[in-house]
Amino acid sequence: MLGIDKKDRNLLVVVAVLALAAPFILNPFPAGSELAQFNAGYPDLMQRFVIFGIFAIGFNILFGLTGYLSFGHAAFLGVGSYSAVWMFKLLSMNVLPAIILSVIVAGLFSLLIGFVSLRRSGIYFSILTLAFAQMSFNLAYSVLTPITNGETGLQLTLNDPRVLGSSATADGSIPVTNLFGLEMRSTYEMEVGAWLFQFNAGYYLCAFIMLAAFYLAMRIFRSPFGMMLRAIKTNQTRLNYTGLNSRPYTLAAFVISGMYAGLAGGLMASMDPLAGAERMQWTASGEVVLMTILGGAGTMLGPVLGAGFIKYFENIFSKINDSVLHGWFAFLPDGMENALVTIVHPFVGKGWHLTLGLLFMAVVIFLPGGLIEGGQRIAKMFKKKKGSSSDDDSEHSPKQAPHVAE
Amino acid sequence: MDAILLQTLNGLDKGSAYALIALGLTLIFGTLGVVNFAHGALFMIGSFCAVTLSRLLTLSFETVDPTKTDFLGNPAKVKTPYVEAWFGPEAGGTIIDWAVPLAIIFAIPVMIAIGYAMERGLIKHFYKRPHADQILVTFGLAIVLQEVIKYFFGANPIPTPAPEVFKGSFDFGMLIGMDANAVIYPYWRMVYFFFAALIIGGVFAFLQFTTFGMVVRAGMADRETVGLLGINIDRKFTIMFGIAAAVAGLAGVMYTPINSPNYHMGMDFLVLSFVVVVVGGMGSLPGAVLAGFMLGILESFASMNAIKAIIPGIDQIIIYVVAIVILLTRPRGLMGRKGVMED
């Protein structure tokens, strides 16, 4: 079914179930309880999970398969956001044309940048993409202000034409984004006992698109085209000697991953119709690199996992303050409680980036395959205890690329 | 004419900073073959060495001065820095005033120690790993260093002024027979330029005229052979890493009066200095210096109004445009050596 084998189908089903049931799964603690702050099941955060998941899946098609490390992918996300907001301003508040436009524009933009950057490989490629992204960021901030609205960011106003929609609603406010009338912000709330589950239209749109993107990435991974990309990662020189020109393949991978980034950008603007230049800054590109590596580059599930992990910690970990810590360690004697709080304090709340940096370093040093490899190692240990021999899942964790090193 | 001169001078100080950071990066790359994304963080730590020293020097104790009263009529508390109490107000005041230049002495051992620890503790394990892994782990380290500094010093920029003597500007135009006020140049920027020239000259002289430098150069050319001759080249390279860290740190120390240090200044400089290194040619020390000054001056020319009128926004992107053009036309950079980081 669907042109994928049984193992992949199971993976797809698992991801689908997780994505569709996310409002339940991410809301395990009753509202109002001590642990309610660890709930991630609110629309805004769930949307970000899947949107950054799409972004990371796309980045993984480039980095995971070909080994080309791009440090400028945020530029495509930013371009996607800008085009989507322009569509809202000029055409209508329907998200569909906006998303389509953002994918097309990001694709064209990445074709341009990829065509130039892919002339070099290794670190030069990283620097070239970095240079292009910083260039777009600087331009968006300065000269392109008529298009990007500079520092303020591009926003909707009441005087926008919106040819197919209306400039303003009957009560004089800016119309909201919708999909053929279904408002993106509309949320159905379900109360079950002490729990409050929120089902948001926008989240489900993003989730369905993410599933489609995941499925497409899976097909790419398993296709002859995907095999060619892996060959490029393994040994590009040898590939060239066999008489193959690898550039069309890398360029295709670059454009596809650029379009994924544009899709993510378009969705981001559809959920919250504004776009700012800071989305294109190189630290934003660094973030998607972090997500992919943390989850496991070159694996199907890794990037999604990494994106969810980072976004969860960014939103939840950063909320832990001293009083919460005191609450946790309250069972200890006072002196020990204070000492522990002092030790933990720099790593949580505003300092969560420190934890992220340390964690990231640990992953790069000890687990080059990311969280997925960690999971596999643990699974292997359990299997060994049972006495059965385990086979290496080489398909899901390809060997580290030598090509990037040269 | 005066405008051109002024822009050249303006470009020199930024170019000096680029050249110094790029020099350190190239030293690390040329010796150890490691792409160090944490180099910007070392520059930032250098700046915070200056901040730390100026805070240490102004550590004060409070005394009650009976002759003065505060606005409530109570006897006013007067803060006296220990330094002033020990050396007398005059000498102590001078020491505090000269905190930034003094920080050079303070920063050198600190930075060498940090560089040494970094190489032995982390980078050493990454020689055999792909460059992408090196980039990633040093990128992670940069985040960590940045957050540690943020934790101790806060997120806001901390102004750290230059000594009183160097405040004000120097009328460069008068010197060469132009009208007064045509070409004005702040003293500290001139100091920065000469300081950078001194450091760059020092590093080159060290590599060129000492036995240690000779061994290091030999190691850069052919590490294996030098090792076979019975020289512990790894040890020498570790020391070079410390020196490269010190160069970045000193660039940071002296940059504090020009730009108040904040925790993410390193990241801002990092991207540019990588571009500088690539333009100069990976592994080429003269290339790094040349490209640093060239890009600094180009950037300052591009920010002239006359040029901005022709091509709007050029000042924002000139460096990247140059980098892209150079990389596509001269893949090895301006002065890159054959066989280093070729595809």
UniProtKB/TrEMBL annotation, chain A:
<dbReference type="InterPro" id="IPR001851">
    <property type="entry name" value="ABC_transp_permease"/>
</dbReference>
<feature type="transmembrane region" description="Helical">
    <location>
        <begin position="248"/>
        <end position="268"/>
    </location>
</feature>
<dbReference type="InterPro" id="IPR043428">
    <property type="entry name" value="LivM-like"/>
</dbReference>
<feature type="transmembrane region" description="Helical">
    <location>
        <begin position="325"/>
        <end position="348"/>
    </location>
</feature>
<feature type="transmembrane region" description="Helical">
    <location>
        <begin position="288"/>
        <end position="313"/>
    </location>
</feature>
<keyword id="KW-0472">Membrane</keyword>
<feature type="transmembrane region" description="Helical">
    <location>
        <begin position="123"/>
        <end position="144"/>
    </location>
</feature>
<dbReference type="GO" id="GO:0005886">
    <property type="term" value="C:plasma membrane"/>
</dbReference>
<dbReference type="Pfam" id="PF02653">
    <property type="entry name" value="BPD_transp_2"/>
</dbReference>
<feature type="transmembrane region" description="Helical">
    <location>
        <begin position="354"/>
        <end position="375"/>
    </location>
</feature>
<feature type="transmembrane region" description="Helical">
    <location>
        <begin position="94"/>
        <end position="116"/>
    </location>
</feature>
<feature type="transmembrane region" description="Helical">
    <location>
        <begin position="45"/>
        <end position="63"/>
    </location>
</feature>
<protein>
    <submittedName>
        <fullName>Leucine/isoleucine/valine transporter permease subunit</fullName>
    </submittedName>
</protein>
<dbReference type="GO" id="GO:0015658">
    <property type="term" value="F:branched-chain amino acid transmembrane transporter activity"/>
</dbReference>
<keyword id="KW-1003">Cell membrane</keyword>
<feature type="region of interest" description="Disordered">
    <location>
        <begin position="383"/>
        <end position="406"/>
    </location>
</feature>
<keyword id="KW-0812">Transmembrane</keyword>
<keyword id="KW-1133">Transmembrane helix</keyword>
<feature type="transmembrane region" description="Helical">
    <location>
        <begin position="201"/>
        <end position="221"/>
    </location>
</feature>
UniProtKB/TrEMBL annotation, chain B:
<dbReference type="GO" id="GO:0006865">
    <property type="term" value="P:amino acid transport"/>
</dbReference>
<dbReference type="GO" id="GO:0022857">
    <property type="term" value="F:transmembrane transporter activity"/>
</dbReference>
<feature type="transmembrane region" description="Helical">
    <location>
        <begin position="309"/>
        <end position="328"/>
    </location>
</feature>
<feature type="transmembrane region" description="Helical">
    <location>
        <begin position="237"/>
        <end position="258"/>
    </location>
</feature>
<keyword id="KW-1003">Cell membrane</keyword>
<feature type="transmembrane region" description="Helical">
    <location>
        <begin position="42"/>
        <end position="61"/>
    </location>
</feature>
<dbReference type="Pfam" id="PF02653">
    <property type="entry name" value="BPD_transp_2"/>
</dbReference>
<feature type="transmembrane region" description="Helical">
    <location>
        <begin position="95"/>
        <end position="114"/>
    </location>
</feature>
<feature type="transmembrane region" description="Helical">
    <location>
        <begin position="15"/>
        <end position="35"/>
    </location>
</feature>
<feature type="transmembrane region" description="Helical">
    <location>
        <begin position="191"/>
        <end position="216"/>
    </location>
</feature>
<keyword id="KW-0812">Transmembrane</keyword>
<keyword id="KW-1133">Transmembrane helix</keyword>
<dbReference type="GO" id="GO:0005886">
    <property type="term" value="C:plasma membrane"/>
</dbReference>
<protein>
    <submittedName>
        <fullName>High-affinity branched-chain amino acid transport system permease protein LivH</fullName>
    </submittedName>
</protein>
<keyword id="KW-0813">Transport</keyword>
<keyword id="KW-0472">Membrane</keyword>
<comment type="similarity">
    <text>Belongs to the binding-protein-dependent transport system permease family. LivHM subfamily.</text>
</comment>
<dbReference type="InterPro" id="IPR052157">
    <property type="entry name" value="BCAA_transport_permease"/>
</dbReference>
<keyword id="KW-0029">Amino-acid transport</keyword>
<dbReference type="InterPro" id="IPR001851">
    <property type="entry name" value="ABC_transp_permease"/>
</dbReference>
<feature type="transmembrane region" description="Helical">
    <location>
        <begin position="270"/>
        <end position="297"/>
    </location>
</feature>
